[in-house]
Amino acid sequence: MAVLPDPAASRAVLIGTSRYAHLEQIPAVANNLSALAAALCAPGSWGLAPEHCTVIEDPSTAVEVLEAVRTAAEEATDTLLVYFAGHGLVEPRRGELFLGLTGSIQHRSYTGLPYGTLRDVVLDGRAGRQVMLLDCCFSGRVLGFMSAASAEAVIDQVEIEGTYLLASVPDTSFALAPPGETHTAFTGELLRLLREGVPGGPELLDLDTVYAQVYAALRAKGRPLPQKRDRNTAGGLALARNAAWAPPGFGPAPPPYDHEPTPPPPPYDHEPTPPTPPPAVPPMPTWSPMALPSPAPLPSPGGASRGRRRAVTYGLAGALFVALVAAGVPLAMSWMNDSSKDDSGRDTGRDTSKSSGKPKPGPTSGYNAAAKGSVVNASAKPGGTLKFISQNDADYWDPQRTYFGYVWNFSRFYARQLVTYAPKPGKDGTELVPDLAEKKAKVTDGGKTYTYTLRNGITWEDGSPITSYDIKYGIERVWAQDDIPGGPIFLQEALDPGLTYKGPYKGTSDLKAIGTPDDRTIVFKLPKPNGDFERMLATPSGSPVKKGKDTKGKYTDRPFSSGPYKFDSYQPGKSLELIRNTKWKRSSDPIRTALPDRITVAVNDDQQARDKALFHGDYDLDLQFSGLNTDAIAKARSSSDLSARLDNPYTQLLLFAALPRSVKPLDNVHCRKAVLYAADRENMRTASGGVLSGDIAPHMLPPAITGSDSSYDPYETLKNDGTNATKAKEELKACGKPDGFTITIAVRNNRPSDVAVVQSLQSSLGKVGIETKVAQIDASQYATTMGSPATVKKKGYGIVVYRWGADFPTGQSFLQPLADSRFIQSTANTNVAELDDPTIDHLFDTAIAEQDTEKAGSDYAQINRRISDSAAYLPILFQKSVLWRGSRLTNVYTSDPWQGGYDYVSLGVSE
User: Fold this and answer.
1) pTM for this structure?
2) Per the CB 3.0–4.6 Å rule, which of 132, 584, 601, 830 could disulfide with 564?
3) Which key words are in the record (predicted)?
């Protein structure tokens, strides 16, 4: 019989490393820690007292961890639970497991925490039972030498009384943190189990039940399976109460649960059998609930850091949700009881002088009103608390390190730049305007020198002036990738492509490309012209940092403010509160209205709780550009009052498919054109979620980017309702395949909407004789696999489904990684179609060097046409999202540079 450990006599130590100086970052680990601590301490779960649950996040030394574990081991007389999430590494000669710390280096065990030492500390304690949960990986693929047998040897090292090892199987290394998900794969299923319980299961969830349920859930998703080691009766020890348990005779009989996991299938030696073909025509409901998870950043030429695309509304932090539900569809949503509102008082340090950012009058409400180029509920009234809620914390609040789009938007509350985007709706928001600078740059030397003069009266939160040296130092931090990795490096590439500068933390030299003749003058000297340089400076990477306040890796916890708000309190993974920066002068800032007295962010990974809180008005909007799940949007759309608070803007993302020319017969342009003509774009949009999911894309350049032409429809996609079978058959004859051919479509396995789109494409191609196989690729391996042209050719992936977004809204940021032949790499390739056109390359050089936006746009329009002529890509949708707009919000409008999200710095609230 299962026994629940005595909470008063038990202890838990939760250890997690999400930030690494030399290894891949795992932001989801930070979410694991806070959520698991909350789950274990919940009265209905284990009921552990918060003071008996120690959380150690991003430890830098083994001693820091071991001392905490030793203390807990000496205090616990019943059960000691130790959890670790992060990189699991192996010492190459002895095969010993060691756990990754922030400074760990591959194959150097002395930089990590040896598991054997941790095990000894656990066993030396007084607890009668010890439970070890390891959510880490010791993959043979990463380590380069481990066979399955050697993996077993490592597992055996972990085995102690009451210990379970739960980790990825030895042949994968990236599946622990699925892109777009809040938690790592194993811990996410564990948390779901603790929250939802097991219908029909026992009153207490013993470790054997936990293992079986997590195993089954991971297997159902096609993810690597956990491994278990236990001794004696440890499996009967309960981890928590079963949230779904009901006394006998209470309610309807629950479905049976599986106590033992089904054994995995035997390994295969050849390619997997293609999936069963879908029906000839995929389901096409007029309204179908569908989520659109966004992609993980792709690597780009020159290595992983260069290719990181901004996690626009996603990354590991979030997703774009597009839900299409007809009125009258029954809802199965359980709305929680009302919770109290936050009634904290106002800060009295408000500057009441007039703001130059006064919004234009517009509607006060209405469906999609904020996405139509006007300002909803315009007001200049100051005061109140602007309340955000978010599924995830930031990747980093440090402006030089963040790559999440919603953080780029939010960071403007406390971080300013020389120039920024105009506080205007829609495409007008892409206009660059001065911020810290008096004017936009004076550009000389043929576009290679940019000179700025700073405004008078710009100050830090301590009242000291912001100088040109502060701006230079902030930008120099971009070079410190070994110490503070995470953010984009395009400023580094534009100013110092040879990486001659080593960063502000190494040596005494400074960055020669930036001159500071005096406190108010800053000069940038580029090795070659780049017309988008000011747009690079408008990103958070261009923010000033005061050298004396730079705490390196800890700066993310408390950035020093140059904007109208400053950090007051921050609890990672839980909450953030900004208050007024009383040293900020409204007269020095033409951009920010700074209406609210306070700004708060609450982190809550419970989707239903967030939905309820937004509907109830406890929070004003979702930080991550979405806010409601499919059921909640269905509820909103069925209510005239609630639907008036929804907006459906473009996200500036493109859903498309690459057609790699290395895969025969797609090396023939006519065969590629046959695919483009045969693809039923209208059907694909329906499969993706319908009209709210986006507009059919006739070409590759999203509407917000200069050079995009709404009338350009080279394959008559819009004219023919998305397909032209007659033209497709003509192209098949021209390519010598009149009866069609067979090709494989690659798609991520964690996006139901993308799989539905592929099934629709499969159906329409089949109508003209193009037979297709669908390869659903593990999402954690997708970018790596498709970024290898050799692998794409070997596997025959002739159609590769992708999403793409720009770091800044120009053709350089959006098109160049996809279409410039110089971006074709043997690994981390972004030009998946392998488009190799010298004319396109030359046009990119011309457009990038051009200072005139319209002239550059003309070049990008030509590039777009040549891409269409090459049939290298199949554009599918200019995507849209569904946003929730709280009833208290004032000055609400969507703006293109923020990926269609609301322009945060203009928002106010009405009490």
Assistant:
1) 0.64
2) 584
3) Membrane, Transmembrane, Transmembrane helix
